[in-house]
Amino acid sequence: METLTILNPFVVGKYVSDKYFCDRMEETAFLTKQVENGRNVALISPRRMGKTGLIHHCFNQSSISEKYYTFFIDIYATTSFTEFVYLLGKAIYEELKPQKTLWKEKFFQIITSLRMGFKMDALTGEPGLDISLGDIQTPQTTLDEIFRYLEEADKPCIVAIDEFQQIGNYEEKNVEALLRTKIQQCKQTMFIFAGSKRHLMSNMFNSPSKPFYQSAVSMGLHPIPLDVYTDFAIRLFEERGKHVDGEVVKQVYETFKGCTWFVQMMMNELFALTAHDETCRIGMFSLAKKNVISAQEDSYKHLLANLPPKQKLVLQAIAKERVARGVTSSAFIKKYNLPSASSVQAALKPLLKNDLVTQQDDAYQVYDYFFAEWLAESY
Ligand SMILES: Nc1ncnc2c1ncn2[C@@H]1O[C@H](COP(=O)(O)OP(=O)(O)OP(=O)(O)O)[C@@H](O)[C@H]1O
Ligand SMILES: [Mg+2]
């Protein structure tokens, strides 16, 4: 089925199967080993390196899928504890829905606070969960019930919470402590907490004053090694009757420092540009990059249009500089016609917070290489 539906084997934005997933053997083994030994894991890496993919890949391995119930929630867009509980309840129900287990039948018996959401589809006769946020009156009670339910499963459970740092922004203030207490009481439910905001995540798991201190094994994620990725890319081309020069893969990898999302985006486009029986060569690199950038142009414009003017100026200046140092110096301010050092500083804060800019020591960069290039060229 896959060979027919997946026309371009360089998949971006979702997990399909082992076949389209490159390497991560050691990381998968490490993650698996931790949960098999009853340990929670904090998976922390820069954005777009492959955390979410790794979790799905791990869940897809038979050693995990046959022995555990696995659940995945992405809490990036949640802003309250109630929403968190809502998402978790819904994710568990949806995941179990197609499975035939006695445990599934107990969902509404144990999680009584969600019972009003139980609906039979009038057409298909299929049971469903139809709740809205407002239906969760006392999130703590619902959470207690959900945890009790997980602990009564006939197999151990693994719950992955993606973009976990988000709980620090919830309206309610005691969420970390409350969750930590609940999680600590679990005997057969393991947790994977993933996040890209290194400072926030590290602070949550590594500072003694925080509730989650030492409650999970920390794990990072680095770029996939170049030689391994090159073999993967060549195989995917060959399988579809196309060829790729290893030099192209190397150039892509080096340009984007091996960051998985960017590399996959480029390889996807390069694959599309290569005709059957043809070889993808270095000369196609520029066109591929141009195509990737123009496909995103609308979203770049939208993003920029919604940015306060001072942030926009600073973002453009950083993009033009590629790696910008001394951004509050008078030389930099003069060069880019910026209002003042203090306004640069004020603009940097939200730019960093929203992941538009990254900082390493005194060097600033626009996080998204494609966006950076577009900004540098269009303004
Ligand atoms: N091992 C891999 N092989 C092939 N493609 C991968 C691999 N890992 C990730 N990808 C692809 O790279 C992209 C980025 O991966 P993913 O979304 O997992 O990163 P992330 O670290 O969760 O990013 P973010 O911090 O933005 O959530 C995805 O589109 C995914 O399809
Ligand atoms: Mg992710």
Essential attributes:
about 375 residues, alpha/beta, three-stranded antiparallel β-sheet, about 50% helix, about 10% strand, globular, binds adenosine-5'-triphosphate, binds magnesium ion
Overall 3D form: globular
Mean pLDDT: 94
**Secondary-structure element pattern, one letter each:** HHEHHEHHHEEHEHEHEHEHHEHHEHHEEH
Strand content: 5-15%
Bound ligands, each once? adenosine-5'-triphosphate, magnesium ion
User: Approximately how much helix is present in the residues?
Assistant: 40-55%
Termini separation comes to: 46 Å
**How many strand segments?**
12
Uncertain spans, ≥5 residues at pLDDT below 50? Answer: none
How many DSSP H or I helices? Answer: 18
Spatially, the strands of the biggest sheet line up as 2-5-6-1-7
Structural class: alpha/beta
Return Rg in Å: 23 Å
Biggest sheet features: 5 strands, parallel
How are the elements arranged and paired?
Layout: H1 2-5, H2 25-36, E1 41-44, H3 51-60, H4 62-65, E2 69-74, H5 81-96, H6 102-105, H7 107-110, E3 118-120, E4 127-129, H8 139-151, E5 157-162, H9 175-185, E6 189-195, H10 198-206, E7 217-219, H11 226-239, E8 243-244, H12 246-255, H13 260-273, E9 279-280, H14 285-305, H15 309-321, E10 324-325, H16 330-335, H17 341-353, E11 357-360, E12 363-366, H18 369-378
Parallel strand pairs: 1-6, 1-7, 2-5, 5-6, 8-9
Antiparallel strand pairs: 3-4, 10-12, 11-12
Helix pairs in contact: 2-3, 5-8, 11-12, 13-14, 14-18, 15-17, 15-18
The site of magnesium ion (MG) has 3 residues, from helix 3.
